[in-house]
Amino acid sequence: MALTKLNQLYRAVIVDHSKNPRRRGTLDNTTAQIDMKNPTCGDVIQIQLEIENDIIKDVRFDGSGCTISLASASMMTDAILGKTLEEALCLSEDFSGLVQGKDPENEDDLGDAVMLSGVAKFPARIKCATLPWKALEKALSDKDGTGFDSQLKHDD
């Protein structure tokens, strides 16, 4: 019985982030931006970052996709706001492991994103959950800070 209630709580949080996403929109002072698409399901995400002194001062996302993809983007923006670039990349790595069934090193820092741990039971949904996080990684790895268009390939 307790496990069922916990699953219901997780679902409620995921649906809330999808229907009432945090930080959805655009930034005025974008220093890094990327658009990515998951061609296997059609999810599309744009991540905009305002970075100052290697700290994520602000972040916004926009796009379209399934409940998991949009919830993950919303949860990611909460988790990375105010973090250093290195911390954000570590969180992305932790999240990727989480949705593959591994225990993250910094679970508390992932915030609501830990609610997506159940995605590990549905391998086809892992790409939906990781799309925003992969976009973040690519935006932060772009040396000129402008981001670039990319697609999440089937084997990512």
UniProtKB/TrEMBL annotation:
<dbReference type="GO" id="GO:0051536">
    <property type="term" value="F:iron-sulfur cluster binding"/>
</dbReference>
<dbReference type="GO" id="GO:0016226">
    <property type="term" value="P:iron-sulfur cluster assembly"/>
</dbReference>
<comment type="similarity">
    <text>Belongs to the NifU family.</text>
</comment>
<protein>
    <submittedName>
        <fullName>Iron-sulfur cluster assembly scaffold protein</fullName>
    </submittedName>
</protein>
<dbReference type="Pfam" id="PF01592">
    <property type="entry name" value="NifU_N"/>
</dbReference>
<feature type="domain" description="NIF system FeS cluster assembly NifU N-terminal">
    <location>
        <begin position="10"/>
        <end position="128"/>
    </location>
</feature>
<dbReference type="GO" id="GO:0005506">
    <property type="term" value="F:iron ion binding"/>
</dbReference>
<dbReference type="InterPro" id="IPR002871">
    <property type="entry name" value="NIF_FeS_clus_asmbl_NifU_N"/>
</dbReference>
